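# nightly structure sweep
# worker-07 picked up a monomer target from the shared queue
# config: single-sequence mode, recycle default, output format = C-alpha cells
# input follows
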Amino acid sequence: MTEIKKFVWGVLGAVVRVLLWLLMAVLALFLLLVAVVLLLVGVLWALLRGQRPAAPVFVGRFRRFTTERVWPGGNRQAGASHHDRAEVVDVEVREVDDGQDAAPPTTRPDRPPGLEDRRS
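# output follows
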C-alpha cells in the first residue's frame, strides 16, 4: 500500500509542477504582451504629439558609459585623463549698460542695418 501512495504522490507532484510551469509561462507571455502594447502606445502617442520617441534613461546612461569607458563605481583612472584637461572657451567681451537712462536699440550690432529686433 505504501508503494501505491508513493506512486500517486509522485504523479500528483509531477502534475502540479507541470501546471505551475505552464501558469508561469502564460503569465510571462501576458506580461511581455502588455509591455509591448504599452511601448507601442507610447511611441504612437509621442509621434501624434510631434515628438521623437525617447529612449529610457538607463539606455542613455549605458550608451554614455560605453562610449566614455567609465563605469560607475569602477576604476576612476581609466577616464581621468579625459576630465583633467582644461577647457578653453573663446568669448567676445561686450560692455552691457544697465538700460535705465538709454532707449533700447532698434538694431543689434552684430546684424546689418535694416533688420529690427522683434521683442514681445
